[in-house]
Amino acid sequence: MAILLRDSGLSVEVTPRDPSGFTLLECYALIGCTMIQRVRMADGRSMVMDEEAKLKPGQIINRRATELSGLAPYDVILGNVLICSRKEFK
């Protein structure tokens, strides 16, 4: 089961429509962007986020995603983030 970490702090469990994994269009819709960046986490899962979030005004720091990424205090993740297994991402 994948988790959508909203920048508001809310976490929501999500599943791909297709059992073979999330499509790019699903990722765009869930995250609210038009270009994604996928980063492999230490536990093997993928963190999928907005590639251009830092270029957009008004983006909110996603504290939970930043904490999970291990970037703090040197960098932050902005906007909504999808965390899923490799099998859940096409």
Notes on the protein architecture:
The protein is α+β, with helices and mostly antiparallel strands. It has one domain (2-88). Helices cover 17% and strands 24% of the residues. It is built from two helices and five strands, in the order ββαββαβ. It has helices at residues 24-31, 63-69; strands spanning 2-5, 11-14, 36-40, 46-50, 81-84. A five-stranded antiparallel sheet has the order 2-1-5-4-3. Strand 1 and strand 2 (11-14) form a beta hairpin. The chain starts with a strand and ends in a 6-residue tail after the last strand. The model has no long low-confidence stretch (mean pLDDT 93).
Q: Would you tell me the overall average pLDDT? A: 93
Overall structural class, as computed from helix and strand content, comes to alpha+beta
Percent range for β-strand residues? 15-25%
Total number of β-strand segments?
Answer: 5
Roughly how many Å apart are the termini?
Answer: 15 Å
Rg calculated over all Cα atoms: 12 Å
Count of discrete structural domains: 1
- General shape: globular
- Tally of helical runs: 2
Query: Could you estimate the helical fraction of the residues in percent?
Result: 10-25%
Strand order of the largest sheet: 2-1-5-4-3
Poorly predicted segments: none
Order of helices and strands: EEHEEHE
